[in-house]
């Protein structure tokens, strides 16, 4: 046996040297296709390495490698990364019951292998969850998460994602309770997490985080929540004053709506140049001394010599479309602060019917989606904001009493506000319903919110299509033209909102998919189940679906 393992270690050392040689030859200019091949192979190697790092942590603990004698450790060190067979056979080593350099496997990993303490601890926890542990008597313990353990050893999912999921679930172990009830909760959580990983790995992390947050928060009474909300000053750090903001989920809907308006450069409130000017009011730092041709002296003017160019410069400044870099000059976090400070500091009051016409002064418009079936069943989870935040019944009743709230009662197929061919563009009511129901871009894994997406006609108007909700989808500025270029397909499925079919090079399984990024875990689970069932029926010829042409 020792000869076999020594030979396997020799092969591993040779493979490392061979890989180093190959990477050196691939470090220069290579064809684009070969660059893609290299990236694909490196990612595959990274997955194998990530899996084996956890296996190594388990093996070090299970074999008691931290008890190796000094001579054994010296032999391993001398063998190094390019060992001979003789050196590897001598490096088999022996353990001792006497005093050793390291207290346990974690100590060996940190102080001998040079692994960071946090990484070593994490790998051992992941080994407990996905491989198994060892009790005080040295007897093996089964994996804490057996279903995820099976996925971890398989080749269908990225083991790094499975390992991080196991770590998340492990962090909630104390919140699951003990005994039979605790085991049942753990099993339910593991089943949900595994289902998300299998259905849509791109959005699984978000939904699993939401599940853990729900478990840790529990069913807390409103009084307990109200005792902890507020704005808390944390003090001065690195020359900046820090505040901590805690709000109720219903209040978060207003915050998110406010940020959304600020993030839209097409509105006056989100105008990039206007926000820079607003920021200058409370920082004392001008964004630019020469923002346009009118403020530049003659000697500094290069491209603004004509009246037309001056006019264009003024118009660009008004719309935030001047210099190419203006769109991203303000990071989202900074832009939100500018808008918040504008609310506190501006001495100008909006006039007319457009209170958002001053940069930074955005009127929050909040949509709350009410599930009709759940309301009829008197379920506790019948309301969710358009940002995907679930609301309690009490919060929902309170929110609906406030101005600026748009309640949208939808059934599982959404409210059909159809216009047929009476007009070319979708109405405001239709647009609000579509954005509230779909919440974001349709492309799986895309995180672009609805307010920054375009309503996409799946039935082209110029070819006789209708301006109906069932013939509409929501796509961002990247994926809208991508669909029309044929880079992916929208699919119309009877009784459902449109689904997405990715090309074979991105999805060899050719499954119908939803983008569940903006859904709650329960909604995402239901959507994935619906997509799987629709895929099964489509392949079996039980339903007719329409793959929308570009």
TrEMBL record:
Q: Which UniProt keywords apply?
A: Endonuclease, Hydrolase, Nuclease
- Renumbered to this chain, the Basic and acidic residues biased-composition regions fall at 293-303
| Boundaries of every DUF222 domain copy | 93-436
An example of a GO molecular function for this protein is: endonuclease activity
- Keyword Hydrolase carried by entry: yes
Q: Where is this region: Disordered?
A: 284-331
Q: Which InterPro entries match?
A: DUF222, HNH_nuc
The name this protein carries in UniProt is HNH endonuclease domain-containing protein
- Organism encoding this protein: Glutamicibacter arilaitensis (strain DSM 16368 / CIP 108037 / IAM 15318 / JCM 13566 / NCIMB 14258 / Re117) (Arthrobacter arilaitensis)
The organism's lineage is: Bacteria, Bacillati, Actinomycetota, Actinomycetes, Micrococcales
